[in-house]
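Q: I'm writing up a methods section and want to include an example of the input and output format. Could you take the sequence below and give the corresponding predicted structure tokens, formatted cleanly so I can copy it straight into the document?
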Amino acid sequence: MAALSRIPPRVRSLLRIAVALAVVAGTIAVVGVGPFLHGLASISPPTILVAVALAAVATAAAAWRWRIVSAGFGLPLPWSEAFASYYRSQFLNTVLPGGVVGDVHRAYVHGRHHERVDLAARAVAAERVAGQLVQVVLTLAILLPLGLASPLAPLAWISGAIVVLAIVFVGVVAATRRGRAALRRECRMLRPVLTRPAALFAIAAASVVVIAAHATTFVVAGIAAGVHAGADELAVVALIVLGAAAIPVNVGGWGPREAVAASAFALAGLGAGAGVAVSTAFGVLTVVAVLPGALALVADRFRSVPARSIIGKRRSA
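A: Here is the clean output for your methods example:
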């Protein structure tokens, strides 16, 4: 970890892009270009409309979650600002490498308003981590009861192994003096949120809505791509793919998502090519669905221009 921190940010970004492109190239080498083209061809106006509507629901729920966490940190956030900022954040995360640029941007903008960028950054990080934790718990709660006889059982075992490794990692960190100090510091920072049961319930509920909306979009992509599987089976696989999509090593969302989709579909007996086709359709639908974030970005730019001109006039006067 210390060695990675010494790598310049630009080099780390280039490494992430290189890894993501290598993963996509490897996936193409295994399944060919056909599944990608099939996924693109399966997109239609009705699927786009459904994806846009589901993205609006997910964005509203995520903005609600962010407001709750920010309030716990003492940083009030108006609903309209949270909704527009989250749309803008999702758009930037989708079209830029890494998948975290949008979160950094909304943390900076919100923190600048309160002159507490550091605290706003912690609130955004806590909000994202809370969403990921709920996703992990929900995924395991659905996957683990499947049993050994289910074709999706390998996915359950893989997910369980990943969680065990994560727990071991946290335990190793907590075993060091510096790690314990860092954990205590973070717990103190999160105490205003962790000690409020109503806030925790609201955060969990909002996260479930976000996950359900994204998983439904994946199911819609699977149906559009003509995958011969039930909606419930597609939804289970969607949880695995959504977890891979959260890995901050991608180019515009492409990378581990396609490789994991191919592997998950193959393990489920649906075929690696079908997984890539569905993941491709899902990726394109996701980009289209967050385009309102581009409008929010342009609107912010236009609002900032008059503000700068007024400030310039006042200073000249």
